[in-house]
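In practice, a research group might receive sequence data for several interacting partners and want a quick structural hypothesis before committing to experiments. The following worked case mirrors that situation: the sequences arrive first, and a predicted assembly follows.
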Amino acid sequence: MPITALSLPRSVSLSETVPPLVDPSRRSFCTQGCLSAAAVALASLSSGCGGGGSDSTSPGGSGSTGSPLASATGNVSGRVVSVPIDGSPLTTVGGAAVVRTSLGNYLLARTGQDTFTALTAVCTHEANQVSNFTGSQFACTFHGSLYTTSGSVARGPATRPLTSYPTTFAGNTVTFSV
Ligand code: FES
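A structural hypothesis for the assembly, expressed as tokens:
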């Protein structure tokens, strides 16, 4: 007997007869699983690359890199820098300061009652600014190089000394030419 439209029980919608291709609970599980896996992968990549936010400015070596140097005022005339020491750490033997001038930044240390050293603040490793003092040595916080107050390398990765400039001291003012 031929099948006619009249012999079908009733109209049936597709949603009733075709099951969903993917179970909603299973789809949700896969989505969550993929997101979790991606998060884990990103986290491991980040740590694998040394991706900590402070790494670019953290010392690569071990040991202290001291504290940021106090600033002293530098007056520039031609290539001569004059630094009045009143009110700066340079009033005491063993003190040190950074002098920021239009000619560049310089490190000053008081090595005796009437003696000072003046050094460039440009690290000889990768030319970043040496900005810290340990109490006896200048420190570059970028990769941990340490310099004595006379500019010699006390700890690498720097291998060359800081450029130094002869100083004179009179009237509570340190003067040096660069
Ligand atoms: S720039 Fe690398 S230690 Fe100073």
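Before designing any experiment, note the following. Residues 123, 125-126, 128, 140, 142-145, 157-158 surround FE2/S2 (inorganic) cluster (CB under 6 Å). Residues 22-52 form one domain.
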